[in-house]
Automatic annotation (TrEMBL):
Name recorded for this polypeptide: YcjX family protein
Organism, scientific name: Pseudooceanicola algae
InterPro entries: YcjX-like
Amino acid sequence: MDLRFTSLADGVTRQIESLGDSLSETFFEPVIRIGVTGMARAGKTVFITSLVANLLNRARMPQLTAQSEGRILAAYLQPQPDDTLPRFDYESHLAALTGPTPHWPDSTRSISELRISFRVRPSGLLGGISGPRVVHVDIVDYPGEWLLDLGLMETSYTEWSRQALERAEKRAMAADFLTTCRGATGLDDWQEPLAQGLARSYTAYLAQARAEGFSDVTPGRFLLPGDLEGSPVLTFAPLPPEDRPARKGLWREMERRFEAYKARVVKPFFRDHFARIDRQVVLVDALSAIHAGPAAVADLNQGMEAVLSAFRPGQNAWLSRLMLGKRVEKILFAATKADHLHHAQHARLTAIMESLVAGAASRADFAGARTGALSIAALRTTVEEVIRHDGQPLDAVRGRLADGRQVALYPGALPEDPTRITKGHLSGDHWLDEDYSIMNFSPAVISLKPGEGPPHIRLDKAAQFLIGDKL
């Protein structure tokens, strides 16, 4: 009864919020909520920082139609509307990227928000009738690992354990955890240090899997615990199914904590934040997965399907009740680090991204949501040049490595047929040259002229896709 009452209350609250948003947009000032997510190392923090900097100073944004037509009269930051969320630390991140000793800012660890507002002159006849108006864009930054947890909501502990252990059995880095897991089965009596050790071992395996390019690393909060670190809600792990687990045994306790994680961690995120997003950016480090080889690309495909499931609530009864018919209007999938390739290969990277999205989306019903795919670099760290190897010219890129050296590197050539990557038709453990292994470029020292944002690749096209129609 309590659960039904809670669901009813959530539904009423969402209806009131939806009505308020509609009234605000119709009679006052439109508000667009853009979610930005992606897996580890996809560049969410850099993407948001450079996007905001280039929306405030738009000299490098010719593909943003409202800018090229001269209709954006002003753009400025405002206090965010949600007082309970941390503000995205734009100023510190921009200083890290553009200061005298530029470096990468800290990565996303939790959810944050930033509001940028535009004073825009409408196009066509409306421009002369209504005059300028204000459009607010709220950017919500959150870890992509949290989206993967959606699949847990209608999954039992038994089923989740079975799936997690099947994946672990195929991954060498899970050996220590599997040994610990086998020693913790069938226990009718246990102590808290045992549960903590099991959770630590599982978390260490997930961290190693993510470091080696794997995307499926649920539960998402295990790697980004925040203030929940050490709490029972994050102190569980998968265990092999037991026919008749003891009522006070370890298996029952792991099951209880798994259910608490869903109710107290996963559900509040989707209810309070995800259900309010209008447009979504999913950043993908496709090049690293391609370099890692077929297993990493196959895992990326599975991760994309899991992420996409969050944008088709009709496939998930729990999410359908929460969304009340609301769906994300646009979803942009962006392959990052395009500056690691010569521009001659950018079209191939985009084609691979489109193939990845098409494969995952073919089983999805977006009910009118528009999807797009791009290859981008939110901050360009390289310049292009031609080098010679064995007498042959190679289209290379030059940049500054983390140790300060300036080097020109050739990462290899992507195939013209994207399905050779996305369908695993190429043989070998690695699909890019060894040069890609050391392509850990640092931000270049840049000198920005008045009105300029940081250099980028196709960030203006991304902005046009996401908010161009609202400007």
